[in-house]
Specification:
The structure is a single chain. This protein is of the alpha+beta class and about 475 residues long. Strand 4 and strand 5 form a beta hairpin.
């Protein structure tokens, strides 16, 4: 329901109190006063067609968060405004309502159509318009630049960490390959010595059989404590000395590592009668064992390289569609691998993955950025020492992911601001304050999920909730 507009009444509103009589009259000619009954007025995301100024009544403002309307304000203050207030920017920004509004009691509004509001702002306040445009677009551009820098810095840190992680197994494989070449050369020499010795065909065949048995035992070698290994080395060294085999202390560690004991060495001695030939046979078998151990080291190193490359591909999602059905465990594991160097050896990583959590549709690469930001913050909060907990669980129609740390916690004064853009507790120059803002936008805006924090000293948890059902895919 509409009623006549009074310039005198408009002048009592703080938004219009400094306008001239002619301007107030113009407003009344172009606008109207509407009486609205309790209920919704407009919804977030709808085309912004009107600018509203409250004359009397009560309004409730809300914004979407995690698929729900989150109330951000209730007021009955005369003169508060909302609606198409960005109309003066024209088609340079999407002209949609930035939030939702409803009235909780019968209310009167002064209403201007968006086009009329834009025309008045441009005509009456040209200098203010330029200032507002500069502020709006300048802030947006600054945020985009800093946002991009934040991503590049994170990428640089990850690349440095990955390079370090790849270098270790690669260097180990190179060292093992060089040592393997040397062992194979010595093995050929020992084989020649054995062949020229007193071994008959039957003994030589038995020795070859023992060589194959040694290879099998290497694959099944038990894990020993340092004390157990030391005791076994003493036993083998004594056996070598008792059979006049020089350098027994050098041979013993290799045989122990391969799981070979005194009883097995007695089998070798029973195969070879001559003591001189026995030493050659033992050293030949030693080279066999060393060769097998070195090949295992090369296999482990190259497998580690392959695992790291696979984790990097999983993390970057370079060869996959942006929007896809993903396994959260794979994403979290790949992020932990990528951040392994940054996490360090003094932080214990605890993974608690609920097996009933299903694959969900998501933007995988962007979720990996969320995990990176949250884990990085947790590591810094703990000062590099503590326990990092990564947990997933199914909560009705949502999947919940928790990144927990044992740091000092987030104070109540900070908790309400940590998701604000450019807010940071780090020293000047060490943080942009965009990590959690970016994470919030990815989770809430992109996935229609939710991101919040629960904290007390020694137990801080950043909780991400994502819908199980497909969210609407963005362009």
């Amino acid at each position: 329901m509409s009623e006549s507009c009074s310039p005198a009444e408009l002048k009592t509103l703080f938004l219009f109190e400094h306008l001239s009589d002619d301007q107030l009259e113009k407003l009344c000619q172009e606008g109207r006063v509407e009486i609205l009954e309790p209920g919704p007025v407009y919804a977030e995301g709808d085309p912004a067609t009107c600018f509203y100024v409250l004359i009397e009544g009560a309004v409730v403002m809300s914004k979407l968060s995690g698929g729900e309307d989150l109330v951000v304000g209730r007021t009955s203050q005369r003169g508060v405004y909302s609606g198409a207030w960005q109309a003066y920017l024209g088609d340079r920004v999407p002209q949609v309502y930035q939030g939702s509004m409803r009235v909780s009691a019968t209310s009167r509004f002064f209403v201007l159509d968006a086009d009329c509001f834009a025309e008045i702002v441009v005509e009456w306040f040209p200098m203010a318009l330029h200032l507002l445009e500069g502020l709006f677009f300048g802030s947006r551009n600054t945020k985009q630049v800093v946002d991009q820098r934040e991503r590049l810095l994170a990428l640089g840190q990850l690349s440095a960490g990955l390079t370090h992680e790849l270098n270790n197994p690669a260097a180990a494989a190179v060292r093992a390959t060089s040592a393997l070449r040397d062992r194979v050369a010595h093995m050929r020499q020992k084989l020649k010595m054995i062949a020229n010795g007193s071994l008959d065909r039957t003994s030589l065949m038995s020795l070859v059989g023992l060589q194959e048995e040694a290879v099998e035992l290497v694959a099944k070698a038990p894990s020993l404590t340092p004390l157990e290994a030391s005791d076994r080395e003493d036993e083998l060294a004594d056996w070598f000395d008792g059979h006049d085999i020089g350098g027994g202390w050098d041979l013993a560690p290799t045989f122990v590592q391969a799981g070979l004991d005194v009883a097995w060495l007695e089998k070798v001695a029973a195969t070879v009668d001559d003591s001189k030939t026995l030493e050659g046979a033992i050293r030949w078998l030693n080279y066999t064992v060393e060769t097998e151990l070195l090949m295992n080291e090369i296999a482990d190193s190259t497998t580690r390289v392959s695992t790291l490359v696979g984790a990097a591909k999983q993390y970057s999602q370079m060869d996959r569609a942006p929007y896809q059905t993903i396994d959260l465990r794979e994403l979290l594991d790949s992020t932990l691998v990528m951040l392994a160097r940054k996490i360090g050896d003094n932080i214990t990583v605890v993974k608690e993955y609920d097996p009933v959590v299903p694959p969900i549709p998501a933007y995988a690469a962007e979720l990996n950025q969320v995990w990176t930001n949250l884990i990085d913050n947790a590591v810094q909060a703990m000062g590099g020492v503590g326990t990092l907990t990564v947990r997933t669980l199914l909560d009705h129609d949502q999947v919940q992911i928790e990144i927990g740390d044992t740091g000092p916690g987030v104070s109540d004064a900070i908790k309400s601001r940590i998701f604000e853009p450019f807010f940071t507790t780090k020293p000047v120059g060490e943080g942009t304050g965009l990590g959690l803002d970016i994470s919030w936008r990815i989770v809430v805006k992109k996935h229609q999920g939710d991101l919040n924090v629960e904290s007390e000293p020694g137990n801080t948890r950043f909780i991400v909730r994502l819908p199980v059902e497909p969210a609407q895919q963005e362009d």
